[in-house]
Amino acid sequence: MEYGCFINGNWIKSDKKIPVKDPYTDNVIGNVYQASDELINQAVESAQKGFSEYRKYPAYKRYAILTRISQEIEKRADTIAKTITAESGKPIRFSEGEVKRAVQTFRFAAEEAKRVQGETVPMDAAIGGEDRIGFYIREPIGPVAAISPFNFPLNLAAHKIAPSLAAGNTIVWKPASATPLTAGIFSEICKEAGVPDGVVNVIFGPGDEVGNKLVKHPSIKAVSFTGSPPVGKHIRDIAGLKRILLELGSNSALLIDEGMEERIDEIADRAIIGAFANAGQVCISIQRIYILKDIFNEFVDKFAEKAKSVPTGDPSLPDVIIGPMINQKEAERAEKWVKEAIDGGARYLVQGKRDKNLFYPTVLTNVNENMKVINREIFAPVVSLIPVSTISEGIDKINNSRYGLNAGIYTNNFSNILQFIKRVEAGGIIINDYPTFRVDQMPYGGVKESGLGREGLKYAIQELTEIKFISLKE
User: Fold this and answer.
1) Which of 155, 211, 337, 464 would be a feasible disulfide site paired with 207, CB 3.0-4.6 Å?
2) Please, are residues 276 and 238 in contact by the beta-carbon 8 Å criterion?
3) CB-CB neighbours of 471 under 10 Å
4) Nearest C-alpha neighbor of 87 from the set 3, 19, 178
5) What are the catalytic residues?
6) Looking at the DSSP assignment, which residues form a beta bridge with residue 11?
7) What is the pLDDT of residues 343-390, one digit of tens each?
8) What is d(CA 367, CA 397) in angstroms, rounded to the nearest whole number?
């Protein structure tokens, strides 16, 4: 596979080629061409020109475009899933699931395109507002810069592109440099689906050379970014007066209440997927599990037993849960953090080895909140099991974090459910399931260093439109 930047409906090559490697085999599987300054400007100008026409498209036409994109993704599902696995190392079972979700995400966006609406305002509720009718409408904001990560190279991009198109905006998309081939396929899909030239543009290159210039460009009106908190803060600082949506990091926690003995097997199975799927490289991977002391030993035994046998290795095999991490540098970083924790008094329940960028499941206990494996986002197949005496103590420990994306609890106690909902500082509260749960139409985003704004089609459209208020007087 080889792709130039997709600008105004054409693929344009530059002087600089970026090789794309398979993280599992280390083989080069394709190439893309890095956007020069001239190509960055061309892409934004294309989006600006496309916006002048696309913003006028009626809802039914935007619905039709998004529906065709969804259908084209579905037609090429097998190829896309294999490409995601090849360039990211994501196990094929999860790549196939990602493609299915992207099909659904564009379908949801198509429906939401028909529901971009405002409200009436009761003007006569205020003195001086008599004899007036007030209402507002929502208008598209303009060209949107979409910057997506490697771990969900299709569906996290879909959560930026689909609501933008539903709202009447145009896009300049910069995918992660490690996983650009999926974006290349998507540019072909846009062509096949009849997306007007200039409405979707795709450029390639690293953040410090391409992303920064895209974010700073004065014709970009909004930036939607998923990635690490330091990069998100940097984008916020350099963007100027643009709308900013940031979906950043997490060290998601699960709390298991007493009285769950009959569900221990089910909870452990779910937590295994939540902690280790895609080598833990998911924003809402379980990193911390707090367990009431009465059932701590029983859960530890069950979870550790299951963790030792998590299928790990070749991501193209259908039963594999843990494939390679995105590169060896990230695997070495995770290994270093685990070693620091062990040196600081943590204890292995399951000691996972590292083989280049393949990191085997690792389970720790006897950790403390000064350790990076607890207070930072490890983004690796590493989870810590921690006993607590009460639900209140567990909530305090969950909140003792710089992050606040999703948090989960298993409990039969309604009072504890209410306490969890009211007190936990997170954007999403997941009851009787793991915090890794997400469906694509729900509002999704975090508090504290987990980000700004919300994804989920309806909610992202609200972020990517401007309110225009109208007052009518007799």
Assistant:
1) 211
2) no
3) 12
4) 178
5) 247, 283
6) 6
7) 999 999 999 999 999 999 999 999 999 999 999 999 999 999 999 999
8) 12
